[in-house]
Amino acid sequence: MDETGLEDAAILLMSLGEEEAAEVFKHLTPKEVQRLGETIAKMKTVSRERFDGVLGRFESQAGEHSTLVSNTDEYVKNVLRKALGEDKANLLIDRILQGSDVTGIESLKWMDSGAIAELLRHEHPQIIAAILVHLEFDQVSDVLRHFNERLRNEVMVRVATLDGIQPTALKDLNEVLSKVLAGGDRMRKANLGGVKSAAEIINMMGSAIETSVLDYIREADNDLAQKIMDNMFTFDDVVKIDDKGIQALLKEVQSESLIIALKGATPELRDKVFKNMSSRAAETLKEDLESRGPVRVSDVESEQKEMLKIVRRLADEGQIVLGGGGDDQFL
């Protein structure tokens, strides 16, 4: 569907109202839902002429079609059983309708590729291949990126040599997958734990305990310790530093670096910086920020990280006091 078709479909859905539009969405593929959803979100207004045109074409085309039976699958089953008898009909029904009941496999199309990989990574490569061939190619490629090289290669060999799937095998595969997915909450990892949580906890411990904990983690995994330290004090947290600390920081930061770093800063942090500069310097900095064109996010983040390194060094030297609770020690 091209952009014009998407916009026409979006106009029609919005004209139906939420309840009716929801019923339509139930019959669309994940990609169609995403593309239509994005189009609806971007479409704020539309001319009356186009609105009437979309509804007119829909009414005309809808009038050219009629529903023959409400449930074609049941119709086929009943007709074949009456014509051939139960046993013979059942032999054909599975072949005719082999792709119709794949609710378990269809559910994967709505899942994140990482979650699918987590679900399948311990299955046999043949099983993984039989499931993945039902998904869109781009989604399969994303899933495979989450596998290690050996599993990825073995799955691709099976995909390449797969020559159809027997109806009974597909049915069994779908039933197993449906049972696994029935525990939907188990498929979505709770956003708990991790580096950021550890950093937040350590932040609340106070400097004495903080040093002990980080030293222990550093001995076991230096990279992990560094990641925790990076999350313990973010660039937005600079606003929590007192005025004396901000002034010490500004003496260490080059003007160009400060401009780029502040492009991604909150208004509160900018005001904090301006307040700790002379009136002339603050006005110059404001003008530089306003006149500076768009800056790459990666450049902003890079300069912010460099400033955080300076913050951490000044804190180690005792020139800056970082936020922390717990021990309330004074020297």
UniProtKB/TrEMBL annotation:
GO CC annotation, single: bacterial-type flagellum basal body
Subcellular location(s) per record: Bacterial flagellum basal body; Cell inner membrane
All copies of domain Flagellar motor switch protein FliG C-terminal, residue ranges: 216-322
SUPFAM superfamilies (UniProt xref): FliG (SSF48029)
Leader sequence residues: none
GO-annotated biological processes: bacterial-type flagellum-dependent cell motility; chemotaxis
Membrane topology designation: Peripheral membrane protein
Record bears the keyword Chaperone: no
Keyword tags: Bacterial flagellum, Cell membrane, Cell projection, Chemotaxis, Cilium, Flagellar rotation, Flagellum, Membrane
Residue ranges of domain Flagellar motor switch protein FliG middle in the record: 115-183
Assigned protein family: Belongs to the FliG family.
Functional note: FliG is one of three proteins (FliG, FliN, FliM) that forms the rotor-mounted switch complex (C ring), located at the base of the basal body. This complex interacts with the CheY and CheZ chemotaxis proteins, in addition to contacting components of the motor that determine the direction of flagellar rotation.
Record's protein name: Flagellar motor switch protein FliG
Biological source species: Sphaerotilus mobilis
